[in-house]
Amino acid sequence: MRAIPAQLETSEIGHSLMDPFGRAITYLRVSVTDRCDFRCVYCMSEDMAFLPKRDLLTLEELDRICSAFVAKGVRKLRITGGEPLVRRDIMTLFGSLSRHLDSGALDELTVTTNGSQLARHAKDLAACGVRRINVSLDTLDPDKFRAITRWGDLAKVMQGLDAAQGAGLQVKINAVALKGVNEDELETLLEWAHGRGMDLTLIEVMPLGEIDGQRIDQFLPLSMVRARLAARYTLQDLDDRTGGPARYARVKETGGRLGFITPMTHNFCESCNRVRVTCTGQLFMCLGQEDAADMRAPVRASESNELLDRAIVDAIARKPKGHDFIIDRRHSRPALSRHMSVTGG
Ligand code: SAM
Ligand code: SF4
Predict the structure, then answer these.
(1) Top mutation candidate among 34, 87, 134, 136 for ligand 2, by most atoms within 8 Å of CB
(2) What are the structural domain ranges in the chain?
(3) From the CB of 83, is ligand 2 less than 6 Å away?
(4) Cβ contacts of residue 203 below 8 Å, gap of 6+?
(5) Residues 305, 239: Cα–Cα separation, whole Å
(6) N or C: which end of the chain has fewer CB within 10 A?
(7) Class assignment of domain 27-343?
(8) Higher confidence at residue 6 or residue 256?
(9) Is 43 in the pocket of ligand 2 (CB under 6 A)?
């Protein structure tokens, strides 16, 4: 294939980053740790090996990378992991990034969490300008919760949710739809979430990383779930596009929003507006591809941002058109060896 110089492929119009397919990159997801206090069965194996601490970006380095993207037109930052709220002093990062909300450079600073540490951090998050958060919760049954997360305690997550709503944070619940595990409980989850004023988004299992067990056993197509829910509820399609794989409907009976994230059965790549940085500074231009660009070396090479800025522009020039995940009986190996906890989903 012909190599085109990066500067011809990526355009920086004003402050905005544009990829070779004309998609403006306005959303950065940042994984701040690969560690977690849970071991969800679809996400990790029980005996995960985590990265040595020295490989991780420091909080200052994470701030520099996020801020470089904000300077280039990123309007939304999502902090994720692993479990972001188990990283030591993580509120320092939220606190420093909040300056971009104050200046108007950033529209939204948000977080995806398993909720285990929310009770102690909810107020501080709100004070840092966080308005909406995503909390992952697949079941309301304490025993099932323990079985899915292996190490989690549902009561702690419930306290976290109370604290979050008490602090004025808008909460969206993310639930992975798992065949034979929570598929009979999705209506209950929906009624519960909407009853508390929280949106619910259902997620299909993605083939990321080696886990103990077979993906095909977990995979439940959301097309089936949707059809089942539509038999009981009136689902009114909404036009709320996020540039990601979520599609939303209003549930007429509850008044709440229901999202479907269907990377396996839907193609959402044309409108993709996002890239992801791992906790070691690898920039993934696509969740479904192996290609990554190193941001840690340019950050560590000098105190000025020249090398980092160049690395960002060059990387965006390589953002691929799309991905092709496959789960079927012939492809029971993960499509990618990387776990979701590396890129943060
Ligand atoms: N620990 C935080 C949490 O659980 O919300 C943030 C990181 S977690 C990797 C982000 C999201 O990815 C969670 O909603 C989780 O359920 C989802 N997830 C993890 N592994 C997945 C997989 N293989 N397929 C689909 N979703 C997955
Ligand atoms: Fe941890 Fe989130 Fe993965 Fe569960 S999904 S193991 S909470 S990173």
Answers:
(1) 136
(2) 27-343
(3) yes
(4) 174, 175, 176, 177, 261
(5) 38
(6) N
(7) alpha beta
(8) 256
(9) yes
